[in-house]
Amino acid sequence: MTTEVRVPTLGESVTEATVATWFKKPGDIVAVDEMLCELETDKVTVEVPSPAAGKLADIVAAEGETVGVDALLANIAETGDATPEPAARTEEARPAKAGNGAVDIMVPTLGESVTEATVSTWFKAVGDSVSQDEMLCELETDKVSVEVPAPAAGVLTEITAPEGATVDASARLGVIAGAADGAVEPAPRPEAPAAAPARGTGDIEDAPSAKKAMAEAGISRDQVTGTGRDGRVMKDDVARAVAAAAQPAPAPASIPRAPVPADDAAREERVKMTRLRQTIAKRLKDSQNTAAMLTTYNEVDMTEVMALRNRYKDEFEKKHGVRLGFMSFFTKACCHALKEVPEVNAEIDGTDIVYKNFVHMGVAAGTPTGLVVPVIRDADSMSFAEIEKAIAEKGRRARDGKLSMAEMQGGTFTLSNGGVYGSLMSSPILNPPQSGILGMHKIQDRPMAINGEVVIRPMMYLALSYDHRIVDGKGAVTFLVRVKEALEDPRRLLMDL
User: Fold this and answer.
1) What amino acid positions are annotated as catalytic residues?
2) pTM of the predicted structure, to 2 decimals
3) What are the Lipoyl-binding domain coordinates in residue numbering (predicted)?
4) pLDDT: is 149 or 238 the higher one?
């Protein structure tokens, strides 16, 4: 009897995911709720627990594959089940013997339609002792990075695919000897060349072949531009640096982009984009390509809001245990304006317009890994204190990387506060499928004409980006004016004016 492992619910508007990592391989014993694999969507990472105890019989969706909701990922057989295991996994479950107690290290399953990979990093060198399942090297494909564990314990006696090499799906990467009986003596480890200066934090390990080539050529690490993962120096990089040094004039760096002088290239650093950054880039470009995006601007005099906040902030914090900021005022003002201009709070679904009779407010938050937008649900029915508490909690969870997928979905409108970074004016990009986003900016004292006199007032520029397919210019301007009126006279919020 077998139990199916299927893709869990991914959340509202998320229809597919990519299988990023399998933590188990066919033949492994698993317990209930033990993590089997990890899926990546365009928003968050989802862990898939085991629905039953038993043995992982087979993997249907390999790493790198794109799967839909409820798609079959794998099958779990009961421990005592006599059902024969699939023939396709025989090689993966049993290491290939190379003779004399040696075991070949083979390229693991790369996923559907992936036929080759590049060896990016070896974590072990020839002569090192390794234990079973210890990480030996890392491969990079056009979809994901794949770690290669040791198929057996022993000594790494040979590396047949060095860093930078491109290998196919059935290639041999190296050989482990002495796994079975310890009869094979460890190969003498080659003497390492003098360590080259490390870059950055000092934890980037250059390719051993590159170190040897630098030592033979008599050049230092800072004379070579690394094109490997995280800026690692590969053997080809050293060859290019040596060739450039032999030229009478500085030669451009030999990389597929606009020519860069060698002296500039030596000061550059190349870092691979994270999956989150790639997703952010894709979604922002998709937003530009899909929506008829337009931005309208206005400015707001923050005098009354600042005076009200200064007057009550101590009493507010003492009673509610949270500081009174500006975000609750903007949230309230936007909720008020969205009632009058509901199309800004709507979305397009095919040929239909879906109007939302509630406000799930997205609040953009910058984190060390990128921009995320946690959602405060039913913000239109919350008090100032409830909004401030929710914003503080979501911001803290965002910075700690602990937001769940559900906390970042379902937003109907978004606030983006670039003013905290000093932005004076910018045009925010829509967060699909939403039709509106309000950009807040820096509060700056400026001379204003008030009742025929020039006075200094704390002013803020506001920018509303909207989808012109559903929101007309009149509606966008009206929305922004209502937000401005509510902030310049906060009493209007109490009177529902």
Assistant:
1) 468, 472
2) 0.49
3) 2-77, 102-177
4) 149
